[in-house]
Amino acid sequence: MILQTMALPLSCFLFFLALQSHNSVAQTHSNITLGSFLKANNDNTSWISPSGDFAFGFQQIEDKGFLLAVWFDKIPEKTIVWSANQGNLVQKGSIIQLTKDGQFLLNDPKGQKKWSATFVGSLYYAAMLDTGNFVLASQDSVNLWETFDNPTDTILPTQTLSLGAHLVARFSETNYSNGRFLFAMQGDGNLVLYTTSFLGDQAAYWSTETEGIGFQVVFNQSGYIYLKAKNTTILNYLSDAAPPSNFYQRAILKHDGVFRHYVYPKPSGSGASRWPAAWSTVSLIPENICLSTPSSGGRGICGLNSYCSLGSDQSPTCQCPPGYTIIDPHDERSGCRPIFISQSCEGPSQDADLFDLMEMPNTRWPGDGHDYAHYYKVTEDWCRGICLRDCLCTVAVFEDGNCWMKKFPFSNGRLDDSLGGKTLIKILKDNSTLQGVNSKNNDDSTLIITGAVLLGGSAFINIVLLLATSLTYFYFKNRRSKVLHQQRVTLGMNLQSFSYKELEHATCGFKEEIDHGAFATVYKGELPNERGNFVAVKNLEKFVKEGEKEFETEVLAIGRTNHKNLVQLLGFCNEGHHRLLVYKLMSNRSLANFLFGNPWLDWCTRVQIAFGVSRGLCYLHEECSTQIIHCNIKPQNILLDDLFNAKISDFGLAKLLSADQTRTTTGIRGTKGYVAPEWFKNMPITAKVDVYSFGILLLELLFCRKSLEAESNDENMVILAEWAYDCYIDRRLDLLLQNDEAAMHDMKRLERFVMVAIWCIQEDPSLRPPMRKVTQMLEGAVEVPAPPDPSSYISSI
């Protein structure tokens, strides 16, 4: 970005305004003395600034919990400008207090610490100032700690951001935990907006390009927001449209990645009637974030297979292309998934006639790792034809004789009139064909009845009509057969559809039970004509009957997976009320059989199992055509082959279980001790729930101890994660090892693995690394930073 050169008189004027820092603003306030406290309840008790403009206290966020925050108190919106505890909500009855021994603590109703202000010096009082700054001060009125020095996503007039300071966007409009965007006043002087990709890495999408000269972001009382150098020269304006003095102001890094300067007319302000009684935008950076974010690596605004467009207020929205639907209806940025079976890469190329290409003008999915072909000087018809015949092509972009082809998934989509050209999305011509296969299509009986009715006419006409009816019947029969064949071989898989009698015979009448859970029983079997090749037949006993239409599609999606650390799905049965899955049998059964018994698995084997499980999860989360979230990672679902290689089982089938049954088991999917805190907080469920479960499993692998274990001769439960963190802090991980000499001699690796596990079990999902980074950290390819204390959640289980 080119630096702006300012005229001398205006620079001098603004420099004078900039000198009015928040430290010099004079105001009176009522001191909040030691021993004072606020309790989270429904009456919104708070500490108010002298003018009444701002309040500090607990705000109830819908019906999800309470947020410790600072907000504008005189306007109906009660707009929050700062929050504690990384934006995490607390329960009703939680307390924030200035203790008599000089601490500022947030405790839950059980008295467990959730958050505290860190400062040096003796705390004497607190105060909510009219600037919106909440301060903790010493007896001689020196600020020991203040919200202005610890911003979240918002800055206010008189507030500054010095080198190293940053704002972090919230996750969503009503979820105040950390999101994907960062506004950073870097130590090198450059002011940068970053986006975090869905894989966890960062990339800049806006910058002042002021390395070596930038010094401080200033939001002065007049409403100008600018970057200045150390010699006070103004280098760059973020907002130079200052409103009159009778307006409230704030600047926020929104959850959508846009930095906006807002104004709101004060209730009694004269001349404010020309503005609506709501927050209005006076400036924003960048002007079009859909086009500004990086074009590769999943760093765009929206999730995979979706695209970004600007609304009337310049806010980005995420939408799905034709033939696709949103993955999580509660999170428009979760990405989209196809509602049809993808084109087969096996069998005859005539399968192409089942598909068509839908036009999307002025839409692009820019070049990234999923571009695999580029043709020059071709016609649109040629581009369409080559994409339809190519089973890998899911999107073709055509412009000015150029044809780019992309495979699934595609990322960083954007729609804008300035783009030109068009995108061609491959979809199934008649999606009802697949639906007909799944619902057994009553077309057969309809056609037969129609033919029978027609037999009441003349013999000749009846014969002609009967022939036409028969031909029509066999046409649809053949078409459905073709689509069903396409389902069987989709993307190179070879799943076999078994009848119930076949599986009953293979298991000798379901005689040898090898495992039993809350939702299914697993039996040992042997397929005919494959003597010696034993299988595990899983009978889903708690299957939701209303889900028949999605059963085969879901199984086929899982059947596409192909990874050495996943149990191989061989086939299934979808007959009447019977739902069974057929897997390759693992000779050593589950990890649970070896992890907590005696003898234990040796240290080297446990390390290799950790690698295997992390790689398998990374594949499910990031490398499948459709992301699969396991939802129940635990030792019982990690199977071991004859060489003790780890194989994840039961992946992706959580949604097939009975909703009534899950409600009777605490209303969550998963197993006690392994479930992520999101399940308890009504937050969006993402792949990070698997990361949490893996962290717990990793600790169990390292120490051969259960995540929840009763103490000897005591009903109290020992929480392994809490114990492991304490031992890590005290440098005494050896206390957790049970005479394991091999692990004792590999303490450097052990400590690294424990640090990775602690990162995985952080309460805030945004703090947990994605599985790709987890794998890299375990393997030593990426440095593992010191993890924070995860006990804020562990203590409340």
From TrEMBL:
Write out the GO cellular component annotations.
Answer: membrane
The protein's name is Receptor-like serine/threonine-protein kinase
Membrane topology category: Single-pass type I membrane protein
Indicate the segments forming the Protein kinase domain, all copies: 508-782
Which EC class, in a word? transferase
Q: What is its EC number?
A: 2.7.11.1
Taking the first listed entry, what is the main subcellular location of this protein, grouped into a coarse class? membrane
- Give the signal peptide, or none: 1-26
- Which reaction is catalysed here? L-seryl-[protein] + ATP = O-phospho-L-seryl-[protein] + ADP + H(+); L-threonyl-[protein] + ATP = O-phospho-L-threonyl-[protein] + ADP + H(+)
UniProt family annotation? Belongs to the protein kinase superfamily. Ser/Thr protein kinase family.
Instruction: State whether keyword Kinase applies.
Output: yes
Keywords of this entry = ATP-binding, Disulfide bond, EGF-like domain, Glycoprotein, Kinase, Lectin, Membrane, Nucleotide-binding, Receptor, Serine/threonine-protein kinase, Signal, Transferase, Transmembrane, Transmembrane helix
Which CDD domains does the UniProt entry name for this protein? Answer: B_lectin (cd00028), PAN_AP_plant (cd01098)
Which residue range or ranges hold the Bulb-type lectin domain?
29-149
What's a single GO MF annotation on this record?
A: ATP binding
Q: Where are the transmembrane segments?
A: 447-476
Q: Where in the cell is it found?
A: Membrane
Q: What Pfam families does the annotation carry?
A: B_lectin, Pkinase
| UniProt keyword Kinase present | yes
